[in-house]
Amino acid sequence: MSALRLKNVCTGYGPIDVVRGIDLDIAPGQRVALVGSNGAGKSTLVRAINGLLPLREGRLEWGGESISSSSAPQRTRAGIATVPEGRLLFPECTVLENLIAAATYGEPKAHRTQSLETVFELFPRLHERSKQTVGTLSGGEQQMVAIGRALMTRPRLLILDEPSIGLAPKVVAEIFDVLGRLAKSGFSLLLVEQNVQLSLRSTDFAYVLRQGQIVFSGESSALLDHPEVRRAYLGD
Ligand code: ATP
Hints:
The longest helix is centred in the last third of the chain and has 16 residues, at 169-184. The chain is built from ten helices and ten strands. The N and C termini lie far apart (37 Å). α3 runs parallel beside α6 (139-151). The relative contact order is 0.18. By secondary structure, it is an alpha/beta fold. Bound molecules: adenosine-5'-triphosphate (ATP). Adenosine-5'-triphosphate binds next to α1.
């Protein structure tokens, strides 16, 4: 069964429909890429999934239940976490404060401790720097905090919006290694990346979005060899 299922999802801003008729599935433990050029509607679709933007049409299911009208906090509590584009951390606060701030309100303290241990195990560098203010960290370390913060909500689906942007290749490799490990341990991933090569190499299945609609979908390895995908997104 799918973890997340989108059926005919439409949403937008004001009078404009930005994404139209999206069908998309993510299985438990599956790594899914959402690919498309600037303005294709990727971030808009992410907002429709995490509840920041209401659906205009269609249906969202999570574990077989409709979450179409659930609020963003309800979706977070249900296990959907987003690492937003630009990270949106608290730069004046420490690494630890940023992580703790995201632990779900009302959760037993033991859960919080366990989540912190998981984050520090995945990113030992954050453990070393737990008392450092986030604004003084490198871009890569900040991205690790953003991923760690999402993990503090104990999600089953992690949505990452442009996690590699502006980062050095070595740091990107480090972060993507952690993402691979998370998927192996059962997390579903939805990866939104402008770096199509990286995106298709790091996922199992991909959807290509153009002007708000899915124009191709398939195994990521197959899309990597698809002539039209190569021409449009890989500079062939
Ligand atoms: P990018 O990679 O550049 O972020 P994207 O594929 O994520 O692109 P979106 O950010 O979803 O694309 O934008 C899709 C369209 O929706 C664009 O035409 C954009 O101008 C428009 N749009 C995005 N956010 C808003 C908003 N808050 N109000 C009105 N229009 C918006």
